[in-house]
């Protein structure tokens, strides 16, 4: 029983903790419905594993009778009903009620009246209507969730002892005393073991959780995500909530280095789902900050990035008769007038000039990017590129989000772009032509690459052997909120 109670507490703390006072970048709320479901699942696991659990030996003396009960083990366990009550601002009360246990073991006694009498044999103990109540509080220490028991009580409705011995008539002389002693011993021992599992085992397991974890790698550096709690788990009315940093950063940085602050979350007021998960636009903004800091949002665009049928686009000379066959030289004809460039091709250096931003509003998801594109011409395939001009690009994207299974997917629906020449070695250049160049690069490469990443999707936070049932999402101010029920689905079932 105690082992599984530890699992219950760790799962509950992970749910409320996977979840420095600041606004959170991510938030997980478990409803009363979700907590109750988790408890019911774990009670079933308790029933499966409690059989065979050892019971501590009981030794004592009643008058002139010395007795000993040993080698006792649970032979049958009918699971109790589980009830969890969230106490706003305090903690969670866990109650296991109505359990029955059957215990088998050995016993012996020794009594001296006129002469010594001793006997031994087996014993069957039945405990009825067992109820255990424990109050648990969750906290936070250096970003880790903490847990401790604040009080345990155990009540055993009835104890029945069946002694198998030739002198069981003698046992009946002190039966009531023995039953009360066994009841008292088991009651105290159950609470002692439960408190130990909460205050030592479960607390240690939570302290060892990795609150900052690797989620990827880029440019020979690990990408990290900070799941550290920004405050102690919140005990609300009918829910438990954990608020986490949610920041993404590179491993050589320190958490909080971006200086960005998440906006407050709006409440969903959802009580029908087991879990609500808020994901702030701050999460990707913080990642963008790290990438911008390292100049990782830069790329050299060449013919190799295009499909064979589109590679003519970067040529100076091409067939100008249709949009499908036009090239850079078609809209920047000055390049064709430079003899050494006549048969050349273009290479484009692209880099961001500010941190990309994601903006989530009710029903709408948009992104903003600002950067420069420097154009170079390679007079021949083996020649070094020669700089010709640079344009500044401001692009805003309307994004579409969708869900499939446990993954959130994204896709660019449309974009709006402004292009300005900021430097030119060949004189004035038509803004209309440059707009067409960027739109072509965007369609053939940039948008295609971003949509591939969006198609891969981002997986929801995972809990071992638990799947999300019928997840759905809403776009709210500054956050995407996932709502779902949970299903326990262990291997082999």
TrEMBL record:
Residues 269-484 form the Lipid-binding serum glycoprotein C-terminal domain. InterPro entries: Bactericidal_perm-incr_a/b_dom, BPI/LBP/Plunc, Lipid-bd_serum_glycop_C, Lipid-bd_serum_glycop_N. It holds the Pfam family LBP_BPI_CETP_C. Residues 1-21 form the signal peptide. It comes from the Eukaryota. Residues 29-253 form the Lipid-binding serum glycoprotein N-terminal domain. This is BPI protein 2. It comes from Perinereis linea. The lineage of its organism: Eukaryota, Metazoa, Spiralia, Lophotrochozoa, Annelida.
